[in-house]
UniProtKB/TrEMBL annotation:
Top-level lineage group: Eukaryota
Stretches assigned to the Pyridine nucleotide-disulphide oxidoreductase dimerisation domain: 30-65
An MF annotation (GO) of this entry: flavin adenine dinucleotide binding
Gene Ontology cellular component list: mitochondrion; oxoglutarate dehydrogenase complex
Name by which UniProt lists this protein: Pyridine nucleotide-disulphide oxidoreductase dimerisation domain-containing protein
Alphabetized UniProt keyword annotations: NAD
Listed transmembrane segments: none
PANTHER family: DIHYDROLIPOYL DEHYDROGENASE, MITOCHONDRIAL, DISULFIDE OXIDOREDUCTASE
Length: 66
C-alpha cells in the first residue's frame, strides 16, 4: 500500500515542479494495511477522530476465529 502513496506523492512533486502550483494530497484516502494473518486494512478516519468531530458512524464486527 505504500506504493500507492508514493505514486501520488511523485505525481504531486512533478506537478509542483512543472506548474509551480502546490496541489494537496488527501492522506485520508490512502489505504493502510497491517500484514498479519489475517491481514487488516482500513481507509479513512479512525473511530477516535470521528468521535472528536461528532460524526455519526456505524461499527461492523466480524469474528475472525474459526
Amino acid at each position: 500500500m505504500l506504493a500507492h502513496k508514493a505514486e501520488d506523492e511523485g505525481i504531486i512533486c512533478v506537478e509542483n515542479i512543472a506548474t509551480g502550483r502546490k496541489p494537496h494530497i488527501d492522506y485520508n484516502c490512502v489505504p493502510n494495511v497491517i500484514y498479519t494473518h489475517p491481514e487488516v486494512a482500513w481507509i479513512g478516519k479512525s473511530e477516535e477522530q470521528l468521535k472528536q468531530e461528532g460524526v455519526k458512524y456505524r461499527i461492523g464486527k466480524f469474528p475472525m476465529s474459526a
